[in-house]
From TrEMBL, chain B:
The lineage of its organism: Bacteria, Pseudomonadati, Pseudomonadota, Alphaproteobacteria, Hyphomicrobiales. This is Branched-chain amino acid ABC transporter permease. InterPro entries: ABC_transp_permease, LivM-like. The keyword Nuclease does not apply. PANTHER family: ABC TRANSPORTER PERMEASE PROTEIN, HIGH-AFFINITY BRANCHED-CHAIN AMINO ACID TRANSPORT SYSTEM PERMEASE. It is a multi-pass membrane protein. Pfam families: BPD_transp_2. One of its GO terms (cellular component) is plasma membrane. CDD domains: TM_PBP1_LivM_like. The chain crosses the membrane at residues 26-43, 49-69, 76-95, 101-123, 130-148, 184-203, 234-255, 261-281, 288-308, 320-341. GO terms for molecular function: branched-chain amino acid transmembrane transporter activity. It comes from Mesorhizobium zhangyense. The keyword Cell wall biogenesis/degradation does not apply. Keywords: Cell membrane, Membrane, Transmembrane, Transmembrane helix.
UniProtKB/TrEMBL annotation, chain C:
This is Branched-chain amino acid ABC transporter permease. It comes from the Bacteria. One of its GO terms (molecular function) is transmembrane transporter activity. PANTHER family: ABC TRANSPORTER PERMEASE PROTEIN, BRANCHED-CHAIN AMINO ACID TRANSPORT SYSTEM PERMEASE PROTEIN LIVH. One of its GO terms (biological process) is amino acid transport. The chain crosses the membrane at residues 25-45, 52-72, 78-99, 111-131, 166-184, 205-231, 251-273, 285-305. It comes from Mesorhizobium zhangyense.
TrEMBL record, chain D:
Residues 24-272 form the ABC transporter domain. One of its GO terms (cellular component) is plasma membrane. InterPro entries: AAA+_ATPase (IPR003593), ABC_AA/LPS_Transport (IPR051120), ABC_transporter-like_ATP-bd (IPR003439), BCA_ABC_TP_C (IPR032823), P-loop_NTPase (IPR027417). Coiled coil: none annotated. GO terms for molecular function: ATP binding; ATP hydrolysis activity. Gene3D superfamilies: P-loop containing nucleotide triphosphate hydrolases (3.40.50.300). The keyword Nucleotidyltransferase does not apply. This is ABC transporter ATP-binding protein. It comes from Mesorhizobium zhangyense. Keywords: ATP-binding, Nucleotide-binding, Transport.
From TrEMBL, chain E:
It comes from the Bacteria. This is ABC transporter ATP-binding protein. It comes from Mesorhizobium zhangyense. Belongs to the ABC transporter superfamily. InterPro entries: AAA+_ATPase (IPR003593), ABC_transporter-like_ATP-bd (IPR003439), BCAA_Transport_ATP-bd_LivF (IPR052156), P-loop_NTPase (IPR027417). GO terms for biological process: L-amino acid transport. One of its GO terms (molecular function) is ATP binding. The lineage of its organism: Bacteria, Pseudomonadati, Pseudomonadota, Alphaproteobacteria, Hyphomicrobiales.
Length: 410, 358, 319, 274, 277
């Protein structure tokens, strides 16, 4: 029987397990559902596997070594692991799929031929948030003060260059406030600073326990919740549940929308959960992160489908999948066909565009769940693109000789 | 009697000061080197190199460094990870500032940076002892990692905040960077590790080693037999941090290929400490045995369920693995608190008198 | 001069400029300090009775808190869950004594320290299997811990004090007072202190190591539960809580490894100073997040003058 | 080098011996710890080549006196003149360089090291090769090592501890540990050797051996010895002069016979006349 | 300390050690079949050179070997009719058998008085009785009363030694295993301690097994003696008989034919004990 192997460098253990688990469940269950419902993708079974990293870079690198021979894609799942495997992917010829995370300049597909961060990069996220809080009028930010509360790690520092560019252009003050990994649960110093600085907005690049800590402290210091916005990894139902009512009004940008009634979710319910093929926590099915996990697996599957069609084969190789991921065409119709309309904005990728820049929506915590509170927002290409290009170039130069996709003429 | 020492007489102090006064030990070492230099490279695949062999060597080297400080000189350090970081960042800066510099030279030089930092944080050891001294090294640990994060010059202001190893050639072979072959890196690391181990053996059995051990066993008495405690302790910090720094440079340049600051955080320090204690404090051999146990065992364990065809999820494997490692540490400590090296010594002693029980 | 000004003058001007804010900073520091002290207490007790530097205290906090919440999730009423959790902590103490401590009696400090790291790893794996990795909510209300906040408006500004923080402070003070009495006044207390000096001699006079160790680890478990409840009430309960163990280390060193009083004084000193430093020096001048190392560096400086910490036992050096 | 040509029978402590013959002069030393007065205004001297005993009840301050002499404690008052140099405070490792070595009441050996290493450690001060040479071992470092090893082997032969050369000293019985400690002190080639209860916890046979070693060190090497001991037989037989302390004060000083019959000494220390 | 009736028949053993073998670290065989008995109300001396295994024997009895990675691999130890190898030291102290360890072993950070009080850990007979015994110990050792508030770690060697002995007395034992009580003590104090031993023995019927290097005094106070060499009992007998044995005289008492010889005249020659021949 034909099969392709898709291994996920998961983290269901360690300090970030709470956020990792629903994401991993979603990914697994989508693949299981396809296997159950359709017998895989065009007759090829999807062998979904996990290699546990515990969000630890060293374990991640080990998992990469272990799986690179068999898996047709690497999903590193942490910025640290992504940076680690990024240079190796050129040599090993395995695509890296890092949806909505990793290194923002990766969206430059010419330089990062093997890395993909659809449907949006962190810089997209930052741009979308700014657009939303300024209600579409970035000039209105002039003279304002914006705090970036971030994890003191490469992930948290990702949006800084772009936000700085914005600050210069639109005349607002950007104040990054770092939170150490060991201080995640104890952010009173950071929130005292926020109280002192009286910013107009607080943006958050937080992860795991940091999100809970931040929202709790915000409530404590009476920071207006509607001025507090997180990136998509800071909008986790599980986190917010432990804050409950106090977090009411907190918003998070998201490139995905939970839509439990969509046909794909209903199929998962029918073929996987009801059939007891897998277990998930109570209420988890409706969570943003679980359904985001489903979407992430969809990227891989659609990549496989594209590659199957293009190369006219059934069992695609890692190199063929790379082509597939570079040629995703997820328009309205395609999304509808796979039963995911309304869960993600349509987008497509190209050889120079590995992110797709799909845009997203603002979600707001209403005390019990996240609800959509904005129209579709897209990122500012003219702010982001130049930065992507310079940073990508810098990376390539620092790591010379670095292969560039010269064939890509776009 | 496999291990017959009877009949091996020494007729000069020269002979008594040879590396291996007992013949069997020399043969055993020869055998191990043969395996390390010939058999393993011929049989290993890339995964084995990258997940087992190279890490075992690098960790053993770091443990050797820590062992000099903790096992020989008796100064507890919980900051090994940060000192490895100093070595790694120093090497990165050297390589990017002087691209023409030979990588061997760069690695050798980077050790001096961590030695200097080590001495600076070792100064409090003149007044502070035991677990209290751990605070000095923890201060180093947390301060340095914070610095790696904050001081953008260290990572050349790149937007990822991490250091990335470029491709580096030596004698026409790529030894570091994404294009390097695992087997080349393995040989490189193996040679460095062997050389430093030989140095370490020499230092620890001579005058300086004796001074360190005296300070460890009883520092008051050491002072009263005329040993200058300051020199003794600081030299231990210097030599130890040098080796740890070199290990850090190898860690990033010859193995990982990239590093973000959290990599050098306290879990790394603890890992190296595990190796030292499980392997045996005050033993050179112990570092290798410990590294095999702490680094390689978990990797191997994670294959067990798959090999047996057990339907265990990878998360469960990881949980079990953590438990097993914890239990193994406790188990070995109970079995032989002085570490695997002592266990080996006892086995050897038993072999000497074998087949008699006592 | 600008530089000196920003170090020596401006911070103090800022403090004087917004006294209500300063008060808030001090209160936050105090609360953090009490929380650090709570973890440190568990360490101190065990160190005192066995010279074991118990690294597992952090995971014991997590374990206790998760057990409590987990039991409650299973439908056990909160007030019954507390004694049940204590029972679990007692069993844990017995098991640790049996399996780990007893065979390692009289071994060097380092070995025992290592063994507690072994315990930590084991409990992490074991705990994750049992409780899973997700974030849980502390059952604050069910335990009748008051929530909500009290607000003052001194100096025309405002200071807000969380009621559960007040509870934590009061609880910690009671705990410390109780422990000090226990250690200095009771026969067990004396035996505990004796044990710390010389295991063998203690054995030889008939002090029962097993009993004392079980007792001490159990008390450490009780402290862990209290710590888990107050920390959990602030930040939720998950394995990420384990890292707070590190915050206790400088507190311990500063206060003295075997001093209960030292733990609380050290905790308060570090809690307050690190907050002041971060707010008035760290954030404006050093890019922030200095709390990761300030406590360690501060403790180190103090140790240079008092190598046994503020209240630690003098290190006996005699020949 | 036998400086004991003429018999020394001096009862009075200060009897105008020419300064040249004095190795050490302790002048009016006082030492206290908090409230505890360990030593109160004590003076005595040690001549070149003699065996000087210090005795007194438990807690009299004998060990503290040795600690003052080799710089481990700094007295609050008084000075010590050693080989013509006057001083109060010093670092212990300087005392070694000046030629003072000692053994300890509670054996202070390096427990994890072998006998050989312990004694070699006594020679660390005299060894010079730096880290660089040590790293390579062969060449100068090895030559130096062997040169000192020969000296150490002489001491090992002298003390008859060849059979335990490689044993970690922590595992040795107490008596042998004491012997190794003596070896370590001898390795420092001191001109003044301080022995703190060298025979405590030994049986007769071992005491006899130890006595012989002490006498031989004194006679053959000409080493001056100051010794604390509670076995009166040993003290009376070995020493040339005895100083008696009682709760920090000096109560007698003189030849063994004189001291033995001193009523103060009998009351404070001996109990019954020996 | 109230059971004042002295035992009249010394023949019933309070302690008997039967043919025990002890191994350290799984490889080092130290005791090679040691047997001895201590009669109820007796004082028995265990003599022997350094490293003969005296301490090991005592530790084997009081079950402290475990903490040093040693174990009794053969033989039995019977205390008051029960085998005690499997009892913990704590249970043993409760039964009335306590050891005074060689080399002081005081609790350095505790005050002298607290040190003494730890000895009463196993007692259940109330604070008043303990207090009375504390006063008794102070009466035996007035020096301790003077130093009662000092940290034991800072007291002199001799002071520590008497603290350790006093601490054992505080447990009100039936049997004391005394390991080198005279080590490092001033002659006067040595006499005093042995007088105390005698007094306890006669007045309260406490039995003693004492390991001593100071053969002279040990044989003066003991009723029976064993001589241990390299892990074997080589000679035993009534104290009187031992004192008259030629070898004991020469090797342990230091009196050869013509009386005590001077330490100064020790010759360098290899002597040979007859029982080793
Ligand atoms: N570092 C110290 N701190 C406090 N007190 C001390 C210190 N060193 C010694 N002492 C006290 O000083 C007194 C003299 O002690 P020292 O050790 O000199 O006695 P000693 O004559 O050697 O007695 P022993 O024969 O018992 O060894 C003792 O009472 C002791 O408690
Ligand atoms: N923990 C140990 N590990 C290994 N060997 C030991 C240990 N303790 C003692 N020994 C060995 O056991 C033998 C007997 O020692 P023991 O202490 O019983 O002698 P002893 O008769 O009490 O001597 P001393 O008079 O010196 O106190 C010695 O050879 C010693 O080296
Ligand atoms: Mg003394
Ligand atoms: Mg003994």
């Amino acid at each position: 029987e034909d099969a392709v192997n898709v291994t996920n460098l998961s983290y269901r253990t360690g300090p970030f397990a709470a956020t990792g688990t629903p994401l991993m469940n979603g990914q697994r269950d989508y693949m299981l559902m396809l296997n159950e419902r359709d017998g895989g993708v065009n007759g090829v079974k999807l062998v979904y596997d996990e290699c546990e990293t515990g969000y630890n870079t060293e374990k991640g690198a080990e998992c990469y070594e272990k799986t690179k021979g068999s898996s047709i894609v690497t999903q590193p799942w942490s910025t640290g692991i992504t940076l680690q495997v990024l240079p190796k992917s050129n040599v090993d010829k395995i695509p890296i799929l890092a949806p909505g995370y990793g290194f923002s300049p990766m969206s430059d597909g010419k330089v990062f031929q093997w890395a993909f961060n659809p449907p949006a990069s962190y810089w997209d996220g930052a741009s979308m948030i700014l657009k939303n809080i300024s209600e579409g009028n970035l000039d209105s930010l002039k003279g304002k003060k914006i705090v970036l509360l971030h994890l003191d790690a490469p992930y948290g520092k990702e949006p800084i260059p772009l936000l700085q560019a914005y600050a210069e252009k639109y005349g607002f003050t950007l104040l990054p406030i770092p939170v150490g990994v060991k201080e995640m649960q104890n952010q009173s110093a950071q929130w005292l600073q926020i109280r002192r600085e009286r910013p107009d907005f607080v943006l958050m690049w937080g992860w795991g326990a940091m999100n809970v800590g931040a929202v709790t402290e915000a409530a404590k210091t009476k920071f207006p919740m509607d001025k507090f916005v997180g990136i998509w990894w800071s909008g986790h139902d599980g986190d917010m549940k432990s804050v409950g009512e106090a977090g009411k009004g907190y918003r998070s940008i998201s490139w995905s929308l939970p839509h439990s009634e969509s046909s794909v979710m209903q199929d998962i319910k029918k073929y996987v959960l009801d059939a007891k093929k897998a277990e998930i926590g109570e209420g988890e099915f409706d969570w943003v992160f679980y359904q985001r996990g489903v979407l992430i697996s969809m990227f891989t599957v659609e990549g496989i489908k594209a590659a199957q069609a293009h190369f006219n084969t059934k069992v695609v190789s890692a190199e063929q999948l790379r082509w597939g991921l570079e040629n995703l065409k997820l328009d309205e119709a395609a999304l509808k066909a796979i039963g995911m309309d309304g869960m993600i904005a349509p987008f497509s990728t190209a050889c120079n565009n590995h992110a797709g820049h799909a845009g997203g929506w603002m979600l707001q915590w209403d005390g019990a769940k996240f609800v959509k509170v904005s129209d579709h927002i897209t990122a500012d290409a003219e702010m982001i693109d130049p930065l992507v290009q310079t940073e990508a170039k810098k990376y390539a130069e620092a790591n010379a000789p670095w292969p560039i996709n010269e064939e890509c003429k776009m | 009697m496999l291990y017959r020492t009877v009949g091996q007489f020494k007729t000069s102090y020269h002979a008594d000061h040879a590396l291996f006064p007992v013949k069997q030990d020399a043969w055993l070492l020869g055998f191990i080197l043969l395996i390390a230099f010939v058999v393993l490279p011929a049989t290993a695949n890339e995964f084995v190199f990258n997940a087992l062999l190279i890490p075992v060597l690098v960790y053993a080297l770091a443990a050797l460094g820590l062992n000099i400080l903790t096992g020989y000189a008796g100064q507890l350090s919980l900051g090994t990870g940060a000192f490895m970081g100093v070595g790694a960042y120093a090497c990165y800066k050297l390589v990017t500032i002087f691209p023409e510099l030979n990588i061997v030279v760069a690695i050798a030089l980077s050790g001096f940076f961590s030695a200097a930092v080590g001495v600076a944080f070792g100064l409090p050891s003149l007044r502070i002892k035991g677990f209290y001294l751990a605070i000095a090294t923890l201060a180093a640990q947390f301060f340095l990692v914070w610095l790696f994060e904050k001081w953008a010059w260290l990572y050349n202001y790149n937007s990822s905040g991490a250091i990335q190893v470029p491709n580096i050639d030596m004698f026409g072979l790529t030894v570091a960077g994404p294009n390097a072959k695992a087997v080349v890196q393995y040989y490189f690391v193996l040679c460095v590790v062997c050389l430093i181990t030989w140095f370490a053996i020499n230092i620890t059995r001579g005058r300086i080693g004796r001074i360190w051990k005296s300070v460890r066993d009883m520092d008051i008495a050491a002072e009263l037999v005329g040993i200058n405690l300051m020199k003794a302790k600081l030299s231990a910090f210097a030599v130890s941090s040098y080796i740890v720094g070199v290990a850090g440079a190898l860690f990033v340049f010859l193995w990982r290929g990239a590093a973000e600051p959290v990599l050098f955080d306290i879990p790394l320090s603890f890992r190296v400490l595990f190796i030292v204690i499980i392997g045996g404090m005050g033993s050179i051999l112990g570092n290798y045995l410990g590294a095999v146990l702490i680094v390689a065992l978990p990797v191997l364990i994670s294959f067990v369920p798959g090999a047996l065809g057990l339907p265990v999820s990878s998360a469960m494997v990881e949980h079990l693995n953590t438990m097993i490692v914890g239990a193994t540490i406790i188990g070995f400590l109970i079995l032989e608190p002085h570490g695997l090296a002592r266990l080996w010594a006892i086995i050897r002693e038993k072999l000497v008198i074998w087949p008699f029980p006592h | 001069m600008d530089f000196l000004n920003s170090i020596l003058v401006k911070p103090f001007a800022d403090m004087a400029g917004a006294p209500d804010f300063l008060l808030q900073v001090l209160w936050e520091g105090l609360v953090a300090g009490v929380l650090y002290a709570l973890i440190a207490l568990g360490f101190v007790l065990i160190y005192k009775s066995s010279r074991i530097f118990n690294f597992a205290q952090g995971i014991m906090v997590v374990f206790a808190a998760l057990t409590l919440v987990g039991l409650h999730e299973k439908g056990v009423p909160a007030l019954l869950a507390v004694p049940l959790t204590l029972l679990v902590m007692f069993i844990l103490a017995v098991v640790i004594e049996r399996v780990v401590l007893r065979p390692l009696v009289n071994q060097p400090d380092m070995i025992l320290f290592m063994a507690t790291i072994g315990i930590t790893l084991f409990l992490v794996g074991f705990g994750e299997i049992i409780f899973g990795g997700e974030n849980k909510v502390m059952i604050t209300e069910q335990l009748y811990i008051p929530t909500g906040s009290i607000e003052f408006e001194p100096f025309g500004g405002f200071v807000s004090i969380e009621q559960k923080d007040v509870t934590a402070v009061v609880g910690a003070i009671l705990l410390v007072a109780g422990l000090i009495l226990f250690l200095n006044r009771s026969k067990m207390g004396r035996a505990i202190r004796a044990l710390g000096d010389d295991h063998q001699a203690a054995l030889s006079v008939g002090i029962s190591l097993s009993t004392i160790w079980v007792l001490v680890w159990f008390i450490a478990g009780v402290i862990a539960l209290v710590t888990g409840i107050v920390w959990g009430a602030r930040a939720g309960v998950s394995f990420a809580l384990e890292v707070i163990a590190f915050k206790a280390l400088p507190v311990l060193m500063l206060g003295g490894l075997e001093s209960v009083l030292g733990a609380i004084v050290g905790g308060l000193a570090i809690g307050i100073l690190e907050k002041l430093f971060e707010i008035y020096w760290g954030q404006p001048l050093l890019g922030g997040n200095t709390e990761t190392w300030f406590a360690f560096v501060f403790a180190l400086i103090v140790l240079l003058f008092r190598p046994q910490g503020l209240f630690g036992e003098r290190i006996i050096e005699r020949v | 080098m036998n400086s004991r040509a003429e018999p020394l029978i001096i009862v009075a402590p200060d009897d105008g011996i020419p300064a040249g013959d004095l190795l050490m002069d302790v002048k009016n030393v006082s030492l206290s710890f908090g409230g505890v007065k360990a030593i109160t205004d004590i003076s005595f001297n040690v001549r070149k080549g003699e065996i000087r005993a210090i005795i007194g009840p438990n807690g009299a301050g004998k060990t503290s006196m040795l600690n003052v002499i080799n710089g481990f404690y700094t007295p609050q008052k008084g000075t010590i003149v050693f080989r013509g140099e006057e001083r109060r405070a010093m670092k212990p490792h300087h005392a070694v360089r000046q030629g003072i070595a000692r053994t300890f009441q509670n054996v202070a050996l390096f427990k994890g090291m072998s006998t050989l290493d312990n004694i070699m450690a006594g020679r660390s001060v005299m060894m010079k090769r730096n880290l660089f040479w040590q790293m390579f071992w062969h060449g100068p470092a090895l030559r130096e090592e062997i040169e000192h090893r020969e000296k150490v082997e002489e001491i090992i032969d002298f003390l008859e501890i060849q059979h335990i050369r490689r044993t970690p000293v922590g595992k040795l019985p107490y008596g042998l540990q004491k012997r190794v400690e003596l070896g370590r002190a001898l390795a420092m080639e001191p001109s003044l050797l301080l022995l703190d209860e060298p025979m405590a916890g030994m049986n007769l046979e071992e005491k006899e051996d130890m006595s012989r070693f002490i006498i031989d060190v004194n006679r053959q090497r000409g080493t001056t010895i100051a010794l604390i001991e509670h076995d009166m037989g040993v003290v009376m037989d070995l020493s040339d002069r005895v100083v008696v302390l009682d709760y920090g004060k000096k109560i007698a000083d003189g030849t063994p016979d004189a001291v033995k019959s001193n009523q103060n000494v009998i009351d404070a220390y001996l109990g019954v006349a020996h | 300390m109230t059971n004042a009736a002295p035992q009249s028949e010394p023949a019933t053993p309070i302690l008997s050690v039967n043919n025990i073998e002890v191994i350290y670290d799984h490889v080092i065989l130290v005791l090679k079949g040691v047997s001895l008995t201590v009669p109820k109300g007796g004082i028995t001396a265990l003599l022997g050179a350094n490293g003969a295994g005296k301490t090991t024997t005592l530790k084997a009895i009081s079950n402290l070997l475990h903490a040093e990675r040693g174990e009794v691999t053969k033989g039995t130890i019977v205390f008051e009719g029960d085998e005690i190898q499997s009892l913990s030291p704590n249970q043993l102290v409760r039964r009335g058998c306590i050891q005074v360890m060689e080399g002081r072993h005081c609790f350095g950070h505790l005050s002298v008085e607290d040190n003494l009080m730890t000895g009463a850990f196993t007692r259940r007979d109330g604070a008043a009785a303990i207090r009375a015994d504390l006063d008794l110990v102070y009466e035996y050792f007035p020096r301790l009363k003077v130093r009662r508030t000092s940290q034991a770690g800072y007291t002199s060697g001799g002071e520590q030694q008497i603290t350790a002995i006093g601490r054992a007395l505080m447990s009100k034992p039936k049997m004391i295993l005394l390991d080198e009580p005279s080590m490092g003590l001033a002659p006067q104090l040595v006499e005093e301690i042995f007088e105390i031993v005698k007094k306890l023995n006669e007045e309260q019927g406490v039995s003693f097994l004492l390991a001593e290097q100071n053969t002279n005094i040990a044989l003066r106070y003991a009723k029976y003696g064993y001589i241990l060499e390299s892990g074997r009992i080589v000679l035993d007998g009534e104290a009187q008989a031992l004192r008259e044995n030629e070898d004991v005289k020469e090797f342990y008492l230091g009196v050869a034919g013509e009386g005590r010889k001077s330490f100064k005249d020790v010759k360098h020659y290899k002597r040979r004990k007859r029982w080793l021949a």
